[in-house]
Every structure is written in structure tokens, then in C-alpha cells.
């Protein structure tokens, strides 16, 4: 059952991967709405050749085809700001899928405006978080945009129905797509996400073939790899002494993480739509960057600012997970986080070993760490230990008052 009448939709921008599902969606949009379709394929560093998507779209008669390399924008304007906050959802998830959706939606809206389209369309299912993320971002950028979500609207009930539709309309169906996939995968430069089918029982360990971005830690080298990351204003800007662009640096971190078995996560998470789901995530470069950034903050951030950041972080991470990247509260938190990063600069040395990221050194011209204050040796009057007496007595006042009442 279509959400819109045919006369409401003349042109649609479709988030298009070139795979079977989005090819079926492309044809369904033609047949259901008699609408012109513009395809948009984003290169977010998913590691796949994207030219086949162009050829597939051309084969299906599409005249306006957008294939955009968004890797630098993705890392510099979305991933890095999120990492300034040390954002992790439910304590462990580095938000690899979540942070990609607002950028895709942003570009969908831009293309809709460029081409005069009435609507955008996506291939997210009605059970997941991505439908929420895509659409909240789109409405935040264009309140009047029409959004078509075929998985919520069409009458197909099974994989067989989809295959039959594809064959009826002469959409090529590869042999490996005729049966149910053992699990689904979403990937970008930050991570890969695998879920469904063989992974649905959280009591069963994931098969080895699920992991695509990382070596098994047990098979990783027996010798540690040492690297150095340099930061400016909270962002990584150089690796092993060499200045690199955001995406180039992150790709190199991914290689280091992959080769050392870093960044695997088996998580049962709480979806925004209300259910729990099990996912297998691989975030090699992001895991390294998180450890390095926290180490850099440890010597450059004031205690009050650091602790407030840690209090705000779960809320910030939840906003991204739930799709509120373009909401004012996320932007307010980002402003506070970015302000905290003005002196987060210097170098962090790390050892990577069999799934572990070990901080082994950090230095900064803006460091707040003072050897004079912490030394057990004579500190030449830098800290008068007698001052601690009054400090403790004042902080103990209410505790002593409570204890006195209990004694009475």
C-alpha cells in the first residue's frame, strides 16, 4: 500500500547500493509511482567497487546517477567530531552505522534540491534504527521533503516475492542472492556491522567467517606494533610523524587495527524502536583512535572539564544512535565538546598487540601534568602537605555530623 498518491510523486532520489534489494526498490518506484528515479551511491570507504552500481543503474534506464566520494567529509566532519566526545553507546559501541546515516541523508536532500525531486527513498526495514536515522536527518534539513520507505509500504511478504518481482521485471538475480543470506552486512570506513540469521541467538558464538575487517587476535603477530598519533584540537592530524588527511590517516589506522586483531565487538544492544538486537561489529581504526584520544586528554584536559565530558557523553552517544545528529541538543553538546578540545594537542605512543591497544607514552606542550607536584621526592615547596589537613576536615564535616547523629 503506497503512502503517497501517484500525482504527488514525480521524481525520487534513491539511496542506491546497486544490490538486489535497492534494484528492486528502483523498479518498484517506477511501477508504483510512475516516477523518474535519480540514484545516489555514497562512497564512505565501504571497500566495494562502486562502478557496478553505476552500470546497473544505467542498465535499468536511469539518466541521473550520482556516485560521490564522501570519505574525507565522513571522517573529518562526522567521525572526528564524534570522537572528540569519546562517544560510545551503551559503554562499548563506537556508532559506526549510526554516524554514517546523517551524511547520507544530507546528500540525499542536496541532490533532491539540485534535481528538483519531490521525494527521497531508502532501503531500511521497518524494524531497524536506520529508518529513523535517515528520516529524522532528512526532515531536519527539509521539513517538506516526502520520504518513501518501500519496506514499510509494499505488499511483498517474503524473499520469494522479491525474487518473483525481480524476474518479472528482468532484474538480474545472482545465484547467491536467491536464498536467504546467512547474515546482513553494513560497512563504511569506520566499521563493519553484521547481524541477523546465524547471529540472532546471542548464546551462540559468531562463526569465524563473519569477521571481515580484522584478523583473529590469536593469529595476529607475536610482536607488538608501535605507532605514534599526533593531535591538534582533539583531532588526529599525523601518524608516525607524517601529516595526513583525515580519511588517509583513518585508513592507515584501520590497516594497523586489522593486522593486530583490534576492534572486535559482540553486542546485544537496545534499538531505538524498542527491541534488543545482537550485532557483530569491527572497528579497528576507531578503537585505536579512542584509546589515543583519551590518553591525549588525560594530560591536557582539566579534571572538571574531563569529568563533565564523561557525564555528557552517554547522552551525546544516544542522540547519535537514535538519529538526532542535526538536532539542536546535539549541536549544543558539540559546541561544549569542541570548546574543551582547544588544548588537546600533542603525541601519543601506542603498542598494538593481539587485540589490545596499550598506551605507552603521551606528551604535549599544553600538558597540565606536573612532575614537581606528584613526585615523592622533595618538591621544593610546590605542594604543602599540611594543607591537606584542613582540606580533609572541611570535606569530612557533613560526614562527621551524620556520624554524630547516628551515635545519639
Describe this structure in words.
- The strands form 3 sheets. A 5-stranded parallel β-sheet has the order 3-2-1-4-5, sandwiched between helices. A 5-stranded antiparallel β-sheet has the order 10-9-8-13-14.
- It folds into 2 domains: 6-74 and 100-180, HUPs (Rossmann fold); 185-301 and 343-363, Argininosuccinate synthetase, chain A, domain 2, CATH 3.90.1260.
- Helix 10 runs antiparallel to helix 11.
- It is built from 13 helices and 14 strands.
- With 408 residues, it is α/β, with parallel strands linked by helices.
- The protein is elongated.
Topology:
Elements: E1 11-15, H1 20-33, E2 36-43, H2 51-59, E3 65-69, H3 71-84, H4 101-115, E4 119-121, H5 130-141, E5 146-148, H6 150-153, H7 159-168, E6 184-187, E7 192-195, E8 225-232, E9 235-239, E10 242-243, H8 246-259, E11 264-270, E12 276-282, H9 284-300, H10 303-322, H11 328-340, E13 346-353, E14 356-363, H12 371-374, H13 387-407
Parallel strand pairs: 1-2, 1-4, 2-3, 4-5
Antiparallel strand pairs: 6-7, 7-12, 8-9, 8-13, 9-10, 11-12, 13-14
Helix pairs in contact: 3-8, 4-5, 8-9, 10-11
